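Q: What would this complex look like in 3D?
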Amino acid sequence: MAVMKKKGEREVPAMSTTSLPDVVYIILFFFMLSTSMRDQELMVKYKLPEATEVQKLEKKNLVSYIHIGVPVPHMQAKYGTAPLIQLNDSYKTTKDILDFAAAERDKLSEVDRASMTICLKADGNTKMGIIADVKQELRRANALKLSYASSKVLGY
Amino acid sequence: MAKNKKIPEINASSQADIAFTVLIFFLVVSTMDVDTGIVRVLPPMPDPNVKQEDIKVKERNLLLVFVSGSGQLMAGGQVMDLHYLKDKAKEFILNPYDDESLPEKKDQTFDMPDGSKWTFPVSEGVISLQNTRDTDYQVYIRVQNELTRAFNEVRDDVSMSKFGKKFADLAEEERKVVTKAVPLKISEAEPRKMGK
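A: Here is my prediction, written as structure tokens for the whole assembly.
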């Protein structure tokens, strides 16, 4: 009756899942290191222009963002559909850029101030008028390093 | 007696669930996109107390690139397709045949990182990029892109002939020298009022 006894023992043992948390933690740390926090809610919609000769913006803590585009749909009732400038978390006009640049500069340590970069994220369909105004204000604010944000493409 | 006093193992099966929750939290609140863009340094605002004198640039040293509101491109006085702009700009920067109508070159000596000297004819040319207020940003960026491409290609050529390497593969010090030898001279003028 040895055959009968064997049949009763043939049960697959449960797989050990003790290493599963370790695997998940590794993925977690990978994501924590490779991504950056979403720091502000976008209130404008934009599609970045395309370019081939783009440079990566290193050192994100030195970068300040200016968003230009059409307001998001649920804000359009109040603000219309003309392109607006978003600084931090609200719509601003070109006059506020001076203060914005000064505030952003104050956030940085003294050694980093010279290398502060403004990243201009503007919709491709924006007219140059508004962008030229922003550029003039940035010159006035002495924030001269500017990056025209554009998405990298390999060719047109 | 002591044999029976075994501490029971803590059940760690929920550890994975906790880790998953934290992972999903990070996935939601973080972004992975890397910011890329065309980098420029704006000219500083002129001091209002100092009277500005117009800097005279010889006509041969200036390439006027004008982008109209309808997206048409004019470079050096002729209407041009975007695809030819890069070659036009490259020819302007390099002036390979020392043409009378193309920019002057001035020999400059650079200190190389290995201690030697290197003399290179640096172009005096300035590309002036002008646009109207109703030019589309996309078109403007495309033109900026083509001009940047021209400069990058010239820098690549110069590094290739001097160091035998591409500009991107050069060491930091060598790259500085090449950047000085081929300076990125693009002047972004304030837009013209025409066309409003």
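A: To summarize the key features: Chain B touches chain A through 46 residues (CB under 8 Å). The beta strands of chain B are 30-31, 36-41, 62-67, 73-75, 78-80, 105-111, 117-123, 126-131, 186-188.
Q: Very helpful, thank you.
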